[in-house]
Amino acid sequence: MNVMTIAPRSFHDAATDGLTPAQLETVLRQVGAERYHNRHPFHHKMTSGALSKLEMRAWALNRYCYQAVIPRKDATILARAEDPAFRAEWRKRIEDHDGDDGWSGGIARWLYLATSLGLDADAVKSERLALPATRFAVGAYLSFCANRTLLEAVASSLTELFSPVIIGERVPAMLAKYDYITDDTLAYFKKRPEQASRDSDFALAYVVSHADTPERQQSVIDALVFKCDILWAMLDALEHAYGGAGHIPPGAYREDGT
Prior knowledge:
The protein is mainly α. It has one domain: Heme oxygenase-like (Heme Oxygenase, Chain A, Up-down Bundle). It is built from eleven helices and no strands. The model is unreliable at 1-9 (pLDDT under 50).
């Protein structure tokens, strides 16, 4: 089977005939190449320097909802894992985001990014100004990891395979094209490529070794497609609300902070 010829619309049956471990990894990486949100127009607008400050602030505020749910998602996965060695590795993710005291890790650094853009810390943490679609997407991700198999939950984290790519595109562009953004503003991203590579290497090895039937292989492919869809939907919502048409729903963040 030549997996490199699989089109996006046919990922749903990519494992019908069974895949070797190498073929499964190739398909998973192709999902990211074709469906990860660095291909989204909102990301391209960001890296081209075309986002308004309103759009940039709305992105930071809404993305906080996703950042904040990550350790809860990972705690859910931990609670379902019976293998102590797996738990020992997976809990590093929670430590990365929460830090030693809950506010010295990645979530705190994202909050600093948001406040550096002029947002109020309490408003960001409350998530009350986030788009409804953001809250639904984040909730769907947490529910997926709680209710699908452990293998599928782990596979959904494999978007981290592609995280260093989007950070490598985003950070230099933001520093070069937005004069109100500094290296200090983007401190969150300094540790993420190394952390994401460590985490995705472990998750990929786990998925490839445990997806040992065509059915399990298809389930992990579908899980990664689902996660890419979550991240894509969040940018769709931002583009719809804060792009040219300006369809900001009631209660969502506006320029005056209300």
